[in-house]
Amino acid sequence: MTKKKYLILGGGPSGLTLANKLLDKGEEDFLLIEKEDRAGGLCRTEYVGSNPVDIGGGHILDVRSERVCEYMFRFLPREKWNSFDRDSKIWFKDQFMGSPFESHIWQLPVEDQVRYIKSVAIAGCNLGTPKPEKFVDWIRWKLGDEIAENYMLPYNRKMFTSNLDSLGTYWLEKLPDVSFEDTLMSCLERRFYGKHPGHARFYYPDKEGYGDAFLAMQERLGDRYLGGVRVTSLDVENRIVNGEFTADNIIVTIPWTDIKEYKGLEDGYLDDMGRLKYSGIRVDYHLEKLPFETGAHWIYYPQESYAYHRILVLYNFSPKSTGYWTETNLERVDLLEGKADLSYKNTYAYPHNTLDKPRIMKDLLARMEKDGVIGLGRWGEWQHYNSDVVMEKAMDLAEKLA
Q: What is the spatial distance between Cα 344 and Cα 195, in angstroms, rounded to a whole number?
């Protein structure tokens, strides 16, 4: 049996960052195992000719964490990245409007502006009613019925799940924070007001794909990276994986629900694990340009008539490239039309922030840590974290472990 001090499950951004930071600390007694030969997880890049395709959908490097950016530049030098001010659009009523919706109502016809502003004005948050616990109720409470019915709810049904009533509200710091006053001022002055959403400014490589930085992280690990190994079983009490790897500490960055067999774990935790929800996507890359002109980096499509929920316009943030890719919930891929130049299925794309998830994960992570098994990252913590966030959390964990 292979024995290590640290065994890292999963070669996505969190696992790779943790492994490389351990190496920085002089710790060499570890092994990272990954089901794919090539690392990157949801941020892995494949190529169609010279065109990068990030197989997990749109992943970019947010500028907010200088610590993470500087670390990424170690593996793909700064001069190989371009920086951008985010330009995201919504296709709505046969026109493009800016995002977030509530800050760009001024781009709609005047009669629509009046209707949406009236709806926001009488939303619960502006009338002093208590904040709801369910996502659907919160959307109406925060933005009013008109934005909820025409944009937010249909878009999130397409992206996450048709059962939006299962989602809570504790994760909504990811959404833009725009007040009624901001919405009104944006209409009066015809410009954005409010707190910018994530990725207001971001980096993307000039020629390579985002995943090439993580590939360089893999290469640095040498034989401490073991690809082509799918995790099928975890003996929690004895810290044994697949009956052949054991360690003093196991760090889990893969989905808990993707491990088919657990030993030494009480039934209650297994039952809870079965209640964790997620959605998958298919990414379809098209080599040609879009049949319309746009400067947007990505475009949101709330309409049910489109199978996909967003388009990533590759040539607008990877200037040496051509083409675009779409992102479609796996439940809707049968609605797609036409043939793509490359398609990639991701069974695990977005963890769902269900009402009972905080309690489930708090209990599960505490139980696992008693036996030296630690959850990390989007799937290890079952949080809708972006890549920069999971990398920073991995850096913090490396400091703690080393």
A: 34
pLDDT of residue 170: 85
Selection from 300, 356, 313, 297 nearest residue 154 by Cα: 300
Question: Amino acid identity of 389?
Answer: V
Confirm whether pTM is higher than 0.90: yes
Q: What is the pLDDT of residues 45-79, one digit of tens each?
A: 999 999 999 999 888 999 989 999 999 999 999 99
DSSP result, 210-246: THHHHHHHHHHHGGGEEES----EEETTTTEETTTEE
Distances from the Cα of 371 to the Cα of 1, 235, 257, 260, 305, angstroms: 19, 10, 19, 19, 49
Question: Cα(334)–Cα(324) distance, rounded to whole angstroms?
Answer: 20
- Closest to 373 (Cα-Cα) out of 2, 9, 1: 9
What the block records as the tokens of 174 is 């990811």
Instruction: Give yes or no for a contact between 242 and 229, defined as CB atoms under 8 angstroms apart.
Output: yes
Asked whether the beta carbons of 398 and 251 are under 8 A apart, the reply is: no
Domain boundaries, the chain: 2-87+204-401, 100-189
Residues 6+ apart with CB under 8 A from 366: none
Exposed e or buried b for every residue in 239-253, given b needs 16+ CB within 10 A?
Answer: bbbbeebbbebbbbb
* Nearest by Cα to 127 from 166, 119, 135, 380: 119
- Decide: 264 and 235 in contact? Cβ < 8 Å: yes
pLDDT digits (tens, 9 = 90+) for 221-272: 999 999 999 999 999 999 999 999 999 999 999 999 999 999 999 999 999 9
Determine the pLDDT at residue 174: 63
Amino acid letter, 250: I
C-alpha span between 315 and 317 (Å, rounded): 6
> Does domain 2-87+204-401 fall into CATH 3.40.50.150?
no
Looking at per-residue pLDDT, the higher value among 196 and 163 belongs to 163
Residue 383 to residues 352, 380, 386, 398: CA-CA distances in angstroms?
8, 8, 9, 19
φ, ψ at 81 (rounded to 5°) = -115, 145
- Which CB contacts under 8 angstroms, 24+ apart, belong to 88-93? 88/296, 88/297, 88/298, 88/299, 88/300, 89/294, 89/296, 89/298, 89/299, 89/300, 90/151, 90/299, 90/300, 90/302, 91/299, 91/300, 91/301, 91/303, 91/306, 92/150, 92/151, 92/302
